[in-house]
Write a structure and sequence with these properties.
Radius of gyration: 27 Å
CATH architecture of the largest domain: 2-Layer Sandwich
Oligomer: single chain
Largest sheet: 9 strands, mixed
Length: 574
C-alpha cells in the first residue's frame, strides 16, 4: 500500500511517497520518491510515479515468468485509467462534482451537475414506472428525513447500526477495521468479531496508511447515525439512515386509506444519511445519498403464494449462493421446491432482475444475486440476496440493490415503542395479524455510478457513454450545418418543437465532427442536422450514436420518429 507522508525538517515541510510491504510476515515501510514541498505538488506527482513504478514491476514480473501477477497489475492500471476518464468527463461536462469544492470539500459528499441530475431523474422515473407497476396496490409516499429518537429505538438502529472502527494514535486517522483488513489481504473480514479484527490488526503488524504508525486504538463499534437536536428543548432526533422507516410509521394510515388491502406497497425515493467512518469507492460509500425503496406489506401465511407465480416459475435467476464461488442459473420453481425460498419472495426477485436486464440493459454476465450469510446480512433480515454488478472501476461485483425479507421486525418494534396496535384484520380468514415486509431496496447513487461504468466506452472517435436511449440525459442535439440564417431558422423551429417532448440541446459551435464528438461523449443517442437539402426538402438527418449510421426524416414526421427511437423497441438503424 502506497501513501503520502509529510516530514518536517527545521521549519520546512517535505512530502514523500512511502510504501508498506509485507516481508517475511512483517510489514515494512520503504520511501519510494520525493514529491515536493507542498501537498498540491505531491498529489500532482504521485499518480505519474505510481504508474511508472507499476509498469517497471510488470516488466520485472514478465521477465520472471509471473504472467498472472503481471496481468493483474496491468488490469489495475486500466481500472485507474477508466476511473480517471469517467471523472474527467463527469467534472468537465456537468455530471457530478465534489460538494463544496471551493472549500476543499469533505469526503462522502457529491453534487449532481445538470447532466447528472437529468440522468438521476431518468433512472428514478424508470424505477417508478417499472417497480411500482409490479402490483396495482403499490404507491409512492413522501416522509421526513428527520425522525424522532423513538423511531430508531423501535427499529433497532440505535443499538445495532454500527461499523467497526479503529484510530491511529499518532495521526488520529480513523478507519473501518474490516475495510482496513480487506485492503491488506484478509479475506471476508466482515465475518470476524470485533475482538478478532483487533487481534488481526495487531498480529499482522499493519501500518497506518497515513503516517505508517503501528499504534492503534482498540476496535470498537461506531454508530453511523447523525443526531440532531430539534426545537427549543433540544429533543434528540436523527437523520434517517434509510428511507424504509418512513413507510413503517405510516403503514396503518395508508392501509386504511387504500381500503384495507394487502399486499400493500409503499415506496419512497429520498435521501438517507450515514456517518461513514471512511467514505470511498466513489458513490458506493457516501454520507448523504439517495435511496429508492419499496416496502411490501403482506400476510405471512401467504408467503408461499403469488397470483402471478405461473408467469415466473420457469424463469431463471442468476444466483451466487452463500459459501459457493460459481454463479448458477436456476429456475424460480427449483429455488422454491429445493431451496425452500418462498414464491412471494421469488416473484419479486425476478421482477428486480427483469428491471436490470430489460430496462437498464445491464449485460447478463455482469449481473448476479448474491446470498448473504447470517453474519453478513442486516440484523433485521431473514432472507437476503444482494443485487451485484461487475464493475471495471471497482474491480469486481459490487452491491447496488437488495431483496430483503424483514419479517415483522419493524412493525413489531414500532408497535411496542409507540403503544399502538399495528395489526390488521383479514376479511378472508377472519384473523388479525401483524403484516410481514418484503423490501426492494436500491441505492440510487450506486446505480448511477453503475450506469457510468457499464456504458462508458472508447471508440475510434474517442470516449463516450452509450446509455440506453430512455436513460440518456439529453435525447438529441440539433445542429444547423453552418451558421447561416436559413439553416438556423429551421434548426430553431425543430428545437422548439422537440423540446416540449424530450430533453434536447441546440449546438451550433465548431465543425460538425466536433459537435458529434461532444455529444457522443456525454451519451446523447441522436444528432439531428439541418443541411442544404433540409431547406429544399423540409427534412433532416438523424445520426445514431452507437452505429454512426444516418437516416433522413421529414420534419413533419420527426417527433413521431424520435418517439419511436427513444421509447419503443423500433431498431430503425439496424
Amino acid at each position: 500500500m502506497s501513501f503520502i507522508v509529510k516530514k518536517k525538517i527545521g521549519n520546512k515541510e517535505y512530502f514523500y511517497l512511502n510504501e508498506n510491504k509485507r516481508v517475511n510476515g512483517k510489514v515494512k515501510t520503504k520511501t519510494l520518491a520525493y514529491l515536493g514541498k507542498t501537498k498540491k505538488d505531491a498529489e500532482k506527482k504521485v499518480k505519474d510515479i505510481l504508474n511508472i513504478l507499476k509498469k517497471q514491476e510488470i516488466k520485472s514480473m514478465k521477465n520472471e515468468g509471473k504472467e498472472i501477477q503481471a496481468e493483474k497489475m496491468e488490469n489495475k492500471i486500466e481500472v485507474g485509467k477508466k476511473i480517471d476518464e469517467i471523472n474527467k468527463i463527469a467534472s468537465t461536462k456537468g455530471f457530478f462534482f465534489q460538494t463544496a469544492n471551493i472549500y476543499s470539500g469533505k469526503a462522502g459528499f457529491y453534487t449532481y451537475g445538470h447532466l447528472g441530475k437529468l440522468l438521476k431523474n431518468n433512472w428514478e422515473d424508470l424505477w417508478r414506472k417499472n417497480i411500482l407497476s409490479i402490483d396495482e396496490n403499490f404507491y409512492e409516499i413522501q416522509s421526513n428525513n428527520i425522525l424522532p429518537e423513538e423511531v430508531f429505538k423501535a427499529s433497532g438502529h440505535i443499538e445495532n447500526f454500527n461499523d467497526p472502527m479503529s484510530e491511529c494514535k499518532k495521526c488520529h486517522f480513523r478507519f473501518r477495521a474490516d475495510q482496513f483488513l480487506e485492503d491488506n489481504g484478509v479475506k471476508n473480514p466482515e465475518l470476524l468479531s470485533i475482538e478478532e479484527m483487533d487481534n488481526e490488526i495487531r498480529n499482522l503488524k499493519l501500518k497506518c496508511p497515513k503516517c505508517g504508525s503501528v499504534d492503534f486504538s482498540k476496535v470498537k463499534q461506531f454508530n453511523m447515525m447523525f443526531s440532531v437536536n430539534v426545537g427549543f428543548n433540544n429533543e434528540v432526533s436523527y437523520l434517517s439512515p434509510e428511507t424504509a422507516q418512513g413507510a413503517y410509521i405510516t403503514f396503518l394510515e395508508e392501509f386504511k386509506a387504500t381500503r384495507n388491502k394487502l399486499p400493500l406497497g409503499l415506496a419512497i425515493i429520498d435521501k438517507a444519511y450515514r456517518n461513514e467512518i471512511s467514505p470511498r469507492q466513489m458513490f458506493f460509500r457516501l454520507r448523504e445519498f439517495s435511496q429508492a425503496e419499496l416496502q411490501i406489506f403482506f400476510n405471512p401465511e401467504k408467503i408461499n403464494e403469488h397470483e402471478k407465480w405461473n408467469e415466473v416459475k420457469n424463469k431463471k435467476l442468476r444466483i451466487k449462493f452463500f459459501g459457493k464461488e460459481d454463479i448458477e442459473e436456476i429456475s424460480c420453481l427449483e429455488l422454491n421446491e429445493k431451496n425452500k425460498i418462498p414464491k412471494f419472495y421469488l416473484y419479486h426477485t425476478f421482477k428486480v432482475q427483469e428491471f436490470y436486464f430489460n430496462v437498464l440493459r445491464i449485460p447478463k454476465e455482469k449481473f448476479r444475486f448474491r446470498e448473504l450469510g447470517e453474519k453478513e446480512r442486516a440484523f433485521y433480515n431473514k432472507i437476503h440476496f444482494d443485487v451485484e454488478i461487475n464493475l471495471d472501476t471497482l474491480s469486481g461485483f459490487k452491491e447496488v440493490a437488495g431483496v430483503h425479507y424483514r419479517t415483522n421486525h419493524d412493525l413489531s418494534g414500532h408497535g411496542k415503542i409507540s403503544g399502538k396496535n399495528l395489526e390488521v384484520f383479514d376479511e378472508e380468514s377472519k384473523k388479525k395479524f401483524l403484516p410481514h415486509v418484503l423490501e426492494l431496496s436500491f441505492g440510487v447513487d450506486r446505480n448511477i455510478w453503475t450506469m457510468l461504468d457499464i456504458f462508458y466506452s472508447v471508440g475510434k472517435e474517442g470516449s463516450m457513454f452509450t446509455f440506453p436511449q430512455i436513460l440518456a440525459p439529453i435525447k438529441a442535439a440539433i445542429f444547423p450545418l453552418v451558421k447561416k440564417p436559413e439553416f438556423e431558422k429551421i434548426a430553431g423551429e425543430v428545437f422548439s418543437e422537440l423540446k416540449n417532448e424530450f430533453n434536447v440541446a441546440y449546438d451550433s459551435g465548431g465543425s460538425i465532427g466536433r459537435r458529434y464528438a461532444r455529444n457522443d461523449e456525454i451519451g446523447t443517442p441522436y444528432c439531428i442536422t439541418i443541411d442544404g437539402d433540409s431547406i429544399k426538402n423540409q427534412d433532416v438527418t438523424i445520426r445514431d450514436r452507437n452505429t454512426t449510421k444516418q437516416i433522413r426524416v421529414k420534419i413533419s414526421k420527426l417527433k413521431e420518429t424520435m418517439d419511436k427511437l427513444i421509447n419503443s423497441e423500433d431498431e430503425i438503424f439496424k
